[in-house]
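Example: phosphoglucomutase (alpha-D-glucose-1,6-bisphosphate-dependent).
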Amino acid sequence: MVFKVSLVSTSPIDGQKPGTSGLRKKVKVFKQPNYLQNFVQSTFNALTPAKVKGATLVVSGDGRYYSNDAVQIIIKMAAANGVRRVWVGKNTLLSTPAVSAVIRERSGADGSKATGGFILTASHNPGGPTEDFGIKYNMENGGPAPESITDKIYENTKTIKEYPIAEDLPIVDISAIGVSSFEGPGGKFDVEVFDSADDYVKLMKSIFDFESIRKLLSSPKFSFCYDAMHGVAGAYAHRIFVEELGSQESSLLNCVPKEDFGGGHPDPNLTYAKELVARMGLGKSDTGVEPPEFGAAADGDADRNMILGKRFFVTPSDSVAIIAANAVGAIPYFSTGLKGVARSMPTSAALDVVAKSLNLKFFEVPTGWKFFGNLMDAGMCSVCGEESFGTGSDHIREKDGIWAVLAWLSILAHKNKETLDGDAELVTVEDIVRKHWATYGRHYYTRYDYENVDAGKAKELMEHLVKLQSSIPEVNKMVKGIRSDVANVSSADEFEYKDPVDGSISKHQGIRYLFEDGSRLVFRLSGTGSEGATIRLYIEQYEKDASKTGRESHEALSPLVDIALKLSKMEEFTGRSAPTVIT
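Written out as structure tokens, the predicted fold is:
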């Protein structure tokens, strides 16, 4: 079929500044006339012509509400902008890590490679007609667009006057695998719908020893539960855990992707993953059923993960440290050693201690996966993570929830090589974590999220905290007046990062209060919500004494919690007597 290209007049729309995770707004905002179109065209205009004309682009996402409409709009705009072909995951489904993998690894029948892709997701935010939608662009390395590109996109949204679109291009059937071919003014244009899981599964099998994991999952001593929270991880769970690794179908929870995530909030934490938490024996009431040995959950776009043992929660900060400490022996991909490790600034310093012990390069970066991507592209980092349930490695340029689950299963398989046969007791998730604490010390850690706070009040709170930093002696007077059993503050600052690869400087990345005993308080405004502001408060207490690493977290952190809430005047500024979520 031959299609025509028409130019549509438009005008700038306020508020289209993409954050570190792309552009996220309510669905009703994206449905405004030209809202999505303006952003997509502004993105095309921010790229070099070679990345658009004659190029291959990936367009897919987590399948949330409005994805089907958005994919068709982007296909028509890609055709009009001279893109040669668009690759779409079947039913628009590709996890964020899978998009990264497809961009980096997939070759078309004619040898074509993707130069980038639009990912349609609002990550761990709810979906549905009254909920959130999002879009971001990933570059040819498979990672999120850098600030140099997102800044151009934003500038373009403020001046855009028109966009080309192939309005007469028919709706492409994205429910069936195959190629739809068209002819336009610029030549041929193809849309290829492909299996969402094939490329990603192939990559995972090149990283992990699937046979050793299969042996673990088939052992009567071991039991397993995976919760996709009705997100896109469901498109991979059956294929990987049941077909490839032999787990039982009954081990999968909420693994049918739904555009509204089943009415739930697809954020894998102890608050929102209620069904998994209850099944793992961590709920408020005893179900009377013996929990599985291992449980895990994913968020909406499957880049985040939560790891649980039987009646045991693994903090994301501990998780990345334990993966790094065991990677060389347990995961074939890392058998020749780690190039380095990195964490986001708010993440606990558990990884720092491992890096020092193993003599590894270590980097502390701002929140945002692109900072890890720079290090990985330069060959400086193998494993990285952030406290917000994101863990990953240099196999792609996004965090990867299923990769983290397979990493943990690999460690469990490695630790249980001698125990699966015979009468020896299974080495459990809890055993591994407690041994890690005994070796490296424990970083007691919690995060308080205050969601949808008035943006003006949130800004005032942060300004108050910066002002306090001008006099550390005064801060310590206040600290001792609140809790005399807390160490003195040794320093306080706003975190600033100079990228060792490109020399770029990122300022105002979070407010830190560092204590003499290694404890920390961190305050940060998050850009992952679609409206209002989210204040994140991070509280960390380091304990080296192995005899004291078994305390309850809330007990160990209680003094610092008091300090943080009173020092920041949290209730006074936000009007909240309690956080929305405690992790």
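The chain has a mean pLDDT of 94.
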